[in-house]
Protein backbone atom coordinates (compact mmCIF):
# COMPACT_ATOMS: atom_id res chain seq x y z
CA UNK A 1 0.00 0.00 0.00
CA UNK A 2 1.51 3.28 -1.08
CA UNK A 3 -1.16 5.80 -0.12
CA UNK A 4 -4.91 6.17 0.30
CA UNK A 5 -7.34 9.01 0.84
CA UNK A 6 -11.04 9.69 0.89
CA UNK A 7 -12.33 12.91 -0.67
CA UNK A 8 -15.67 14.72 -0.78
CA UNK A 9 -17.38 14.81 -4.17
CA UNK A 10 -20.78 16.01 -5.37
CA UNK A 11 -22.49 12.66 -4.78
CA UNK A 12 -20.64 11.70 -1.57
CA UNK A 13 -17.25 10.36 -0.53
CA UNK A 14 -14.80 8.86 -3.03
CA UNK A 15 -11.77 6.70 -2.39
CA UNK A 16 -8.36 7.10 -4.03
CA UNK A 17 -5.61 4.57 -3.43
CA UNK A 18 -2.32 3.30 -4.81
CA UNK A 19 -0.96 -0.20 -4.29
CA UNK A 20 2.45 -1.64 -5.11
CA UNK A 21 1.57 -4.87 -6.94
CA UNK A 22 4.30 -7.23 -8.02
CA UNK A 23 3.41 -10.68 -9.33
CA UNK A 24 5.67 -13.53 -8.32
CA UNK A 25 7.03 -15.63 -11.21
CA UNK A 26 4.59 -18.41 -10.26
CA UNK A 27 1.56 -16.05 -10.41
CA UNK A 28 2.74 -14.68 -13.74
CA UNK A 29 3.13 -18.19 -15.12
CA UNK A 30 -0.34 -19.18 -13.91
CA UNK A 31 -1.97 -16.19 -15.63
CA UNK A 32 -0.04 -16.84 -18.84
CA UNK A 33 -1.31 -20.43 -18.82
CA UNK A 34 -4.93 -19.27 -18.62
CA UNK A 35 -5.63 -19.40 -14.87
CA UNK A 36 -7.73 -16.36 -13.88
CA UNK A 37 -6.67 -14.49 -10.74
CA UNK A 38 -9.16 -12.64 -8.55
CA UNK A 39 -8.11 -9.66 -6.47
CA UNK A 40 -10.36 -8.20 -3.79
CA UNK A 41 -10.09 -4.60 -2.62
CA UNK A 42 -11.66 -4.23 0.82
CA UNK A 43 -12.56 -0.90 2.40
CA UNK A 44 -14.19 -0.08 5.71
CA UNK A 45 -14.84 2.89 7.91
CA UNK A 46 -15.35 2.42 11.63
CA UNK A 47 -16.00 4.62 14.63
CA UNK A 48 -14.33 3.38 17.81
CA UNK A 49 -16.60 3.18 20.85
CA UNK A 50 -15.41 2.43 24.37
CA UNK A 51 -18.75 0.96 25.54
CA UNK A 52 -19.55 -1.42 22.69
CA UNK A 53 -18.12 -2.88 19.50
CA UNK A 54 -16.91 -0.38 16.93
CA UNK A 55 -19.61 1.02 14.66
CA UNK A 56 -18.93 0.25 10.98
CA UNK A 57 -21.07 2.52 8.79
CA UNK A 58 -19.18 1.50 5.63
CA UNK A 59 -17.92 -1.96 4.62
CA UNK A 60 -17.31 -2.51 0.91
CA UNK A 61 -15.37 -4.81 -1.37
CA UNK A 62 -14.72 -4.90 -5.08
CA UNK A 63 -13.40 -7.89 -7.05
CA UNK A 64 -11.03 -7.59 -10.02
CA UNK A 65 -10.35 -10.50 -12.37
CA UNK A 66 -7.09 -10.79 -14.29
CA UNK A 67 -7.12 -13.30 -17.14
CA UNK A 68 -5.19 -14.09 -20.31
CA UNK A 69 -6.46 -15.32 -23.68
CA UNK A 70 -3.63 -17.11 -25.51
CA UNK A 71 -5.45 -17.13 -28.84
CA UNK A 72 -5.71 -13.32 -28.87
CA UNK A 73 -2.55 -12.79 -26.84
CA UNK A 74 -4.39 -10.34 -24.62
CA UNK A 75 -4.73 -9.83 -20.90
CA UNK A 76 -8.10 -8.76 -19.55
CA UNK A 77 -8.86 -6.85 -16.37
CA UNK A 78 -12.54 -7.17 -15.39
CA UNK A 79 -14.66 -5.52 -12.72
CA UNK A 80 -18.18 -6.91 -12.85
CA UNK A 81 -19.37 -6.56 -16.46
CA UNK A 82 -16.77 -3.92 -17.33
CA UNK A 83 -13.43 -4.97 -18.77
CA UNK A 84 -10.35 -3.61 -20.44
CA UNK A 85 -7.87 -5.49 -22.65
CA UNK A 86 -4.08 -5.12 -22.53
CA UNK A 87 -1.16 -6.54 -24.49
CA UNK A 88 1.30 -6.71 -21.56
CA UNK A 89 0.95 -7.86 -17.96
CA UNK A 90 2.76 -4.82 -16.57
CA UNK A 91 0.00 -2.63 -18.06
CA UNK A 92 -2.59 -4.71 -16.18
CA UNK A 93 -0.73 -4.38 -12.87
CA UNK A 94 -0.34 -0.63 -13.36
CA UNK A 95 -4.11 -0.17 -13.79
CA UNK A 96 -4.92 -2.71 -11.05
CA UNK A 97 -2.69 -0.86 -8.60
CA UNK A 98 -4.71 2.37 -8.85
CA UNK A 99 -8.14 2.84 -7.30
CA UNK A 100 -9.71 6.11 -8.38
CA UNK A 101 -13.12 7.64 -7.79
CA UNK A 102 -14.68 4.66 -6.00
CA UNK A 103 -17.91 5.94 -4.42
CA UNK A 104 -17.78 4.58 -0.88
CA UNK A 105 -20.37 6.61 1.03
CA UNK A 106 -23.10 9.20 0.70
CA UNK A 107 -22.55 12.66 2.16
CA UNK A 108 -24.85 12.11 5.14
CA UNK A 109 -23.23 8.89 6.44
CA UNK A 110 -20.79 10.65 8.77
CA UNK A 111 -21.55 12.79 11.81
CA UNK A 112 -19.79 16.14 12.06
CA UNK A 113 -16.83 16.48 14.42
CA UNK A 114 -16.65 12.71 15.01
CA UNK A 115 -13.40 10.84 14.34
CA UNK A 116 -13.55 7.77 12.11
CA UNK A 117 -10.95 5.19 11.15
CA UNK A 118 -10.67 4.22 7.47
CA UNK A 119 -8.96 1.00 6.36
CA UNK A 120 -8.05 -0.29 2.91
CA UNK A 121 -6.31 -3.42 1.62
CA UNK A 122 -5.99 -5.61 -1.47
CA UNK A 123 -5.57 -9.38 -1.52
CA UNK A 124 -5.45 -12.29 -3.95
CA UNK A 125 -8.60 -14.34 -3.39
CA UNK A 126 -7.25 -17.89 -3.38
CA UNK A 127 -10.74 -19.31 -2.73
CA UNK A 128 -11.68 -18.50 -6.35
CA UNK A 129 -8.72 -20.34 -7.84
CA UNK A 130 -9.30 -23.76 -9.43
CA UNK A 131 -9.13 -26.52 -6.79
CA UNK A 132 -5.64 -27.87 -7.65
CA UNK A 133 -4.22 -24.35 -7.35
CA UNK A 134 -5.94 -23.79 -4.00
CA UNK A 135 -3.88 -26.63 -2.54
CA UNK A 136 -0.69 -25.02 -3.90
CA UNK A 137 -1.77 -21.64 -2.54
CA UNK A 138 -2.02 -23.02 0.99
CA UNK A 139 1.44 -24.58 0.89
CA UNK A 140 3.40 -21.95 -1.05
CA UNK A 141 4.30 -18.33 -0.34
CA UNK A 142 4.36 -17.65 -4.10
CA UNK A 143 0.56 -17.54 -4.04
CA UNK A 144 0.35 -15.05 -1.20
CA UNK A 145 -0.32 -11.56 -2.44
CA UNK A 146 -1.93 -9.51 0.30
CA UNK A 147 -1.35 -5.99 1.46
CA UNK A 148 -1.57 -5.06 5.10
CA UNK A 149 -4.51 -2.94 6.18
CA UNK A 150 -3.65 0.70 5.54
CA UNK A 151 -5.40 2.74 8.25
CA UNK A 152 -5.90 6.46 8.60
CA UNK A 153 -8.12 8.90 10.50
CA UNK A 154 -11.01 10.87 9.01
CA UNK A 155 -12.75 13.81 10.70
CA UNK A 156 -15.55 15.12 8.46
Description:
- It contains three helices and nine strands.
- The chain has 156 residues and is α+β, with helices and mostly antiparallel strands.
- Helices cover 16% and strands 47% of the residues.
Key traits:
single chain; 156 residues; alpha+beta; six-stranded antiparallel beta sheet; three-stranded antiparallel beta sheet; 47% strand; elongated
Overall shape: elongated
Q: From N to C, what is the helix and strand string? A: EEHEEEEHEEHE
DSSP helical segment count: 3
Q: Provide the helix percentage.
A: 10-25%
What radius of gyration results from the CA coordinates? 18 Å
Uncertain stretches = none
Sheet of most strands? 6 strands, antiparallel
Integer average pLDDT: 90
Classify the secondary structure makeup into a structural class.
Answer: alpha+beta
Report strand order across the widest sheet: 6-5-4-3-8-9
Strand proportion, as a percent range, falls in: over 45%
The count of strands amounts to: 9
Head-to-tail CA distance between termini: 23 Å
Please, how many domains? 1
Briefly characterize the structure.
By secondary structure, the chain is an alpha+beta fold.
Layout of secondary structure:
Blueprint: E1 3-9, E2 12-18, H1 25-32, E3 37-47, E4 55-69, E5 74-79, E6 82-86, H2 89-96, E7 98-105, E8 116-124, H3 131-139, E9 150-154
Antiparallel strand pairs: 1-2, 2-7, 3-4, 3-8, 4-5, 5-6, 8-9
Amino acid sequence: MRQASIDVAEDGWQLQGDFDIQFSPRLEEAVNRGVPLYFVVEFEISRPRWYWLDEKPVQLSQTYKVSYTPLLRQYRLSVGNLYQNFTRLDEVTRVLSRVRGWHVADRDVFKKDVTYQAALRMRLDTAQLPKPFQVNAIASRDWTLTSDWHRWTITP
